[in-house]
């Protein structure tokens, strides 16, 4: 089977993660702390058998791995919190700020030299980020609100996780980092149990199943993505960057407007255009 097929399957599954997450936060589990804990737990459960199959070992160097785990836990918290407060068509394109953050952090702390063209692309990415938050009021003020800041923190924590995970894998190995990152993230999130423990006994099978489905879609998506990366990195990056969850949310707004979100066509046109600009700029910046 061609790597392109695996890339498209991965992109679709990543889109499902956002949709399932939004539906779960809106109709299933409204407490983001409980949602985050369960999502991280099921992701760990799904990781264990695969890691054992590949004969995972004990890490030898822990500092970078611990940092990865901290930022992974923060990303999970901010992501679930973000999809609880923001539209899918807002939170998803905000994640494209990651490439801009990586470039800026590299220039500030790693003394990486960027060309004027790269600085221009970074500026375009952040400028487009203002437009993805637009609503019917078409006001710049919509960007400077708490939910958007949570989305930005989500992206920043994801960026920092990516920076340290590269170092941790070089020191310990892929599966050692993948498994122990999940274990440590779960341990860190255990400190949040007082924020939701009284709700655990009230959980219904349907609520738990939806979170498990979200974790499963993510796990399968990562596997498909890694399989595609084995043959081609550039095309896989392009395909998996496509905002499938935004497209799904837009279709829901037409055929089931009360289910997820509903805005005017003008708002969606602005958000999709901004997302496209961010994706294209990010891909050019990473080349």
UniProtKB/TrEMBL annotation:
Ranges where the EamA domain occurs: 4-133
Xref: SUPFAM superfamilies: Multidrug resistance efflux transporter EmrE
Residues that span the membrane, as ranges: 6-23, 35-55, 61-81, 88-111, 117-135, 147-165, 177-198, 205-223, 235-256, 268-286
Keywords: Membrane, Transmembrane, Transmembrane helix
InterPro entries: EamA_dom, EmrE-like
A Pfam family of this chain: EamA
Superkingdom to which the source organism belongs: Bacteria
Record-level GO cellular component terms: membrane
Protein name: EamA domain-containing protein
Source organism of this protein record: Candidatus Gottesmanbacteria bacterium RIFCSPLOWO2_01_FULL_42_22
């Amino acid at each position: 089977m061609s790597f392109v097929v695996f890339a498209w399957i991965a992109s679709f599954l990543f889109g499902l993660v956002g949709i399932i997450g939004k539906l779960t936060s809106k109709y299933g589990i409204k407490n983001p702390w409980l949602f985050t804990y369960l999502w991280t737990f099921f992701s760990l459960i799904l990781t264990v058998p695969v890691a054992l199959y590949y004969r995972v070992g004990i890490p030898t160097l822990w500092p970078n791995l611990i940092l990865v785990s901290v930022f992974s836990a923060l990303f999970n918290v901010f992501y679930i919190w973000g999809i609880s407060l923001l539209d899918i068509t807002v939170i998803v394109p905000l994640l494209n700020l990651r490439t801009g953050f990586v470039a800026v952090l590299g220039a500030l702390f790693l003394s990486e030299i960027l060309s004027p063209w790269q600085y221009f692309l970074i500026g375009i990415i952040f400028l487009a980020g203002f437009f993805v938050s637009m609503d019917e009021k078409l006001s710049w003020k919509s960007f400077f609100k708490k939910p958007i800041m949570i989305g930005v923190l989500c992206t920043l924590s994801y960026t920092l996780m990516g920076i340290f995970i590269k170092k941790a894998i070089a020191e310990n190995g892929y599966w050692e980092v993948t498994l122990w990152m999940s274990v440590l993230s779960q341990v860190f999130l255990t400190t949040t149990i007082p924020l939701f423990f009284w709700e655990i006994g009230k959980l219904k099978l349907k609520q738990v199943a939806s979170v498990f489905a979200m974790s499963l879609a993510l796990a399968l998506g990562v596997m498909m993505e890694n399989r595609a990366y084995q043959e081609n990195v550039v095309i896989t990056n392009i395909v998996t960057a496509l905002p499938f969850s935004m497209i799904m949310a837009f279709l829901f707004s037409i055929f089931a407007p009360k289910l997820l979100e509903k805005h005017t066509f003008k708002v969606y046109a602005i958000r999709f255009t901004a997302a496209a600009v961010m994706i294209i700029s990010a891909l050019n910046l990473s080349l």
